[in-house]
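Sequence, please.
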């Protein structure tokens, strides 16, 4: 397990702030009333503070004891937040109707154990939302030391389809024209004079981040993979 704590209320990386905010909104519009919710990886409690009042019943888990305490403070001690390992969740089978696991799986090393614990703890009629950085092929991140293994699109979807009958796939991406995509892949952005928009994206400038989308089809530079699963199958070894 590798710890990484991002506080988007104080973060200077404005691109990451927008990416996180878009994922939070994606979850909130799919959260039904009265759900028994498990949030895996509360971090410092930024999303927790917003999420738990909207739940019928809420439990958050976080591996790091400092982050646990900070999340409790952010919710004024009203949310139940416990220290636990996503690879070995301390709950019985089928305890939750809605499970949220955003940007956690890549920190676990044994990411399959994290996915299988989500499956075990979800009700048969429940729903889970999982997000990871997008990769075509899995591996350790070359740019983030905290990402021990980022599963590839094919391998994580294969496991999820083994465990759940309904798997909805969404991509978080920066919208590009065909010219922009070709220039990026051929490394001709500067030559064609379109490198500025990518620099502005990295800087988190609004006119560039407004092109960030979440959709069922990739439309440009893919930043993340978001999967909504339901229809929990019987336990599969």
């Amino acid at each position: 397990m590798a710890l990484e704590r991002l506080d988007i209320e104080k973060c200077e990386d404005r691109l990451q702030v927008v990416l996180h905010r878009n994922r939070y909104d994606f979850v909130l519009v799919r959260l039904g009333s009265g759900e028994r919710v498990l949030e895996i990886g509360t971090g410092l409690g930024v999303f927790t503070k917003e999420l738990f009042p909207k739940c019928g019943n809420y439990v958050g888990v976080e591996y790091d004891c400092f982050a646990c305490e900070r999340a409790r403070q952010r919710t004024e001690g009203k949310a139940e937040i416990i220290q636990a390992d996503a690879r070995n969740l301390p709950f019985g089978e089928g305890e939750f109707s809605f499970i949220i696991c955003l940007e956690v799986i890549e920190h676990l090393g044994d990411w399959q154990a994290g996915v299988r614990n989500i499956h075990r703890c979800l009700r048969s009629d429940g729903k889970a939302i999982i997000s990871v950085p997008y990769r075509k092929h899995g591996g350790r991140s070359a740019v983030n030391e905290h990402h021990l293994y980022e599963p590839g699109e094919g391998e994580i979807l294969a496991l999820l389809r083994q465990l759940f009958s309904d798997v909805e796939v969404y991509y978080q991406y920066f919208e590009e024209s065909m010219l922009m995509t070709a220039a990026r892949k051929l490394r001709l952005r500067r030559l064609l004079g379109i490198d500025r928009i990518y620099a502005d994206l990295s800087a988190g400038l609004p006119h560039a981040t407004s092109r960030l989308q979440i959709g069922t089809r990739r439309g440009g530079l893919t930043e993340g993979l978001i999967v909504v699963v339901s229809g929990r199958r019987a336990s599969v070894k």
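Helices lie at 14-28, 46-51, 65-74, 111-121, 153-163, 178-185, 195-202, 206-209.
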